[in-house]
């Protein structure tokens, strides 16, 4: 597991190579403000090898945050992360490992009949109750999450996950009411609190695509204050001394800035609405920006008015620095399936991110 001494020791090894604020506080220690993502790519042996090589290079170059999910590339991404942890010249206690559960995962490859696979491997075996499924592929019931947590530990080859996200809970809104989804999240959080108490989990959170960056009236909307309140109740029910809800993952980039501009969450102390990122900052949570390069689109070019404000030698570096400049953002995640791009992505951290005033000016 990531520890205070381990992550600070990692920082000390690499800090001179990066600009100020590259390493930021998270959990018991610190984490690089650029993280290695594992979402894209085909479920093939060749892609596995490229991921392993890229993540080893990232770990040995100053990135100590690996982000994955059990369903990414049919469980292959988690296994590639585990292989990279074994191969890299970086101790386990130096690295923050984050994964997610919620989508029913395939195993190794996409089956010819996904629906039949889900029925045979999950419903008929009792891992999933058919009534708990949304869109035939998503479940956050406690028993399912518990089983997937165990499988993630096995895939990753670790005894503890540093951050575990409930993955895209807004998917459940296609089948049930918002209040019912909050109830299910509370049950899921209680399961994760129990894993924390067992010493198998550091902190947990919610990874979303739309839920926190859309207006209140949107079909996919979930309230951050309500999600946080449900986590507090779950911690109390589990008998925890403190709540382990600590992180939010959501898309944020130059072209997808809703997490900063859409004011849809009640301020934790004032009678006003704020954006998701502002809420995260005010409430002491950590935000992790996904899609920071918009799945590669921003590696080619950035809109001119914003581009002129950013530091970096390439569009990809400037895009990463925009994402990690936002208030509340602890790290920007970037796909790491190609060894060729690791050096460029890591080098983004040698440039200073925007200051708060300069960042705000982009939106004026």
TrEMBL record:
SUPFAM superfamilies tied to this protein: NAD(P)-linked oxidoreductase
GO molecular function: oxidoreductase activity
Boundaries of every NADP-dependent oxidoreductase domain copy: 34-358
GO cellular component: cytosol
InterPro entries (alphabetical): AKR (IPR020471), NAD(P)_OxRdtase_dom_sf (IPR036812), NADP_OxRdtase_dom (IPR023210)
Superkingdom, taxonomy of origin: Archaea
Pfam family, any one: Aldo_ket_red
PANTHER family (UniProt xref): GH17980P-RELATED (PTHR42686:SF1)
Name the UniProt record assigns to this protein: Oxidoreductase, aryl-alcohol dehydrogenase like protein
């Amino acid at each position: 597991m990531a520890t205070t001494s381990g992550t600070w020791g990692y920082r000390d090894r690499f800090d001179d190579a990066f600009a100020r604020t590259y390493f930021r506080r998270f959990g018991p220690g610190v984490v690089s403000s650029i993280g290695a993502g594992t979402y894209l790519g085909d479920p093939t042996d060749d892609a596995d090898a490229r991921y392993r090589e890229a993540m080893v290079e990232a770990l040995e170059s100053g990135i100590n945050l690996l982000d994955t999910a059990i369903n990414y590339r049919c469980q292959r991404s988690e296994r590639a992360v585990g292989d990279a942890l074994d191969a890299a010249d970086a101790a386990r206690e130096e690295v923050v490992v984050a994964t997610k559960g919620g989508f029913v995962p395939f195993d190794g490859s996409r089956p010819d009949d996904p629906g039949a696979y889900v029925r045979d491997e999950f419903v008929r075996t009792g891992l999933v109750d058919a009534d708990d499924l949304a869109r035939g592929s998503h479940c956050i019931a406690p028993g399912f999450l518990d089983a997937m947590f165990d499988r993630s530990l096995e895939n990753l080859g670790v005894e503890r996950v540093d951050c575990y996200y409930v993955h895209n809970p807004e998917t459940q809104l296609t089948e049930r009411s918002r209040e019912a989804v909050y109830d299910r999240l509370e049950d899921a959080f209680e399961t994760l609190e129990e894993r924390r108490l067992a010493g198998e989990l550091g902190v947990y959170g919610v990874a979303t695509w739309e839920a926190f960056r859309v207006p209140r009236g949107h079909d996919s909307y979930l309230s951050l204050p309500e999600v946080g309140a449900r986590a507090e109740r779950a911690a109390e029910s589990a008998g925890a001394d403190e709540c382990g809800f600590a992180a939010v993952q959501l898309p944020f980039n130059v072209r997808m800035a809703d997490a900063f501009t859409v004011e849809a969450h009640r301020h934790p102390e004032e009678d006003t609405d704020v954006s998701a990122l502002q809420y995260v900052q005010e409430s002491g949570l950590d935000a992790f920006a996904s899609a920071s390069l918009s799945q590669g689109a921003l590696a080619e070019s950035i809109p001119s008015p914003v581009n002129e404000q950013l530091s970096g030698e390439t569009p990809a570096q400037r895009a990463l620095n925009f994402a990690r400049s936002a208030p509340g953002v602890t790290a920007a995640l970037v796909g790491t399936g190609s060894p060729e791009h690791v050096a460029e992505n890591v080098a983004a951290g040698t440039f200073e991110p925007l200051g708060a005033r300069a960042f705000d000016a982009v939106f004026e």
